[in-house]
Design brief:
- The protein contains 9 helices and 8 strands.
- It is α/β, with parallel strands linked by helices and about 220 residues long.
- It has a 5-stranded parallel sheet with strand order 2-3-1-4-8.
- A hairpin with a 5-residue loop joins strand 5 and strand 6.
- The two termini are about 15 Å apart.
- It binds adenosine-5'-diphosphate (ADP) (2 copies) and zinc ion (ZN).
- One adenosine-5'-diphosphate binds near residues 124, 137 and 201.
């Protein structure tokens, strides 16, 4: 069993790399952002509470997030391990995660900080798009499909862009990262599980750095 956290601001490459690790390690990616977007799309109570906060680029309340993730890591597909993408994002979330894992006799194996420059994140986020059919991630400049308009993975021809992936919201999200999420880096440093990779490298080079850690 391997349990990982990918830490980094919006655009750092967490989702891109989590999908690759999911395939290579046979463990599941758990993205709280994806879970919240599914709640919004389903029109649930949780989605109704989260929607405006997400559109403004703020953080959804810890109670909601902890509730979503605690149910999720109980599920069967997590038994070989999981990659947390976008969680934890605050100190209370990190503490709640530790408590949840301790209860099951589990722990985190690696917490990996993806180090990037903020200025580059605006271009990454505003150029991001996703296959509507299989969820594969792309970028207008950095990761185009091999054939324009056709998903490499599934052949799908419909793509989506996130409502919050605009330059203005990215700045709020970067602010939230530095104020509320970056403090958890030292929390994991103290636990002795923190590693870091150069997230400014090309996508394949980042994957290599990650493989060297999780090997
Ligand atoms: P996050 O999940 O951390 O917000 P993503 O993995 O969605 O970030 O990446 C944001 C965008 O940047 C995507 O469009 C992705 O294709 C692109 N991207 C990811 N990693 C890199 C990289 N190392 N270099 C250039 N572009 C990247
Ligand atoms: P990013 O590409 O910025 O890493 P995510 O998909 O992880 O985006 O998150 C999108 C939005 O969902 C965030 O801006 C925030 O409003 C909300 N969100 C996701 N995960 C969390 C979390 N762990 N705690 C609080 N809010 C969250
Ligand atoms: Zn696809």
């Amino acid at each position: 069993m391997t349990n990982l956290i990918l830490l980094g601001p919006p655009g750092a490459g967490k989702g891109t790399q989590a999908k690759r690790l999911e395939d290579s390690l046979g463990i599941v990616q758990l993205s709280t952002g994806d879970m919240l977007r599914a709640e919004v799309a389903a029109g649930s109570d949780v989605g109704a509470k989260a929607k405006a906060v997400m559109e403004a680029g703020g953080l959804v309340s810890d109670d909601i997030i902890i509730d979503i993730i605690s149910g999720r890591i109980e599920q069967d597909d997590c038994k070989n391990g999981f990659i947390l993408d976008g969680f934890p994002r605050t100190t209370p979330q990190a503490e709640a995660l530790d408590a949840m894992l301790a209860e099951k006799g589990l722990g985190m194996d690696h917490v990996i900080e993806m180090q990037v420059d903020d200025e580059a994140m605006v271009e990454r986020i505003t150029g991001r798009f996703t296959c509507a059919q299989c969820g594969a991630g792309y970028h207008d400049t950095f990761q185009r499909p091999k054939v324009d308009g056709v998903c490499d993975k599934c052949g799908g021809t419909e793509f989506t862009r996130r409502a919050d992936d605009n330059a203005e919201t990215v700045r709020s999200r970067l602010g939230a990262y530095h104020e509320q999420t970056a403090p958890i880096i030292s929390y994991y440093e103290k636990q002795g599980v923190l590693k870091s990779v150069d997230g400014m490298a090309a996508i394949d080079a980042v994957t290599e750095q990650l493989n060297a850690i999780v090997g």
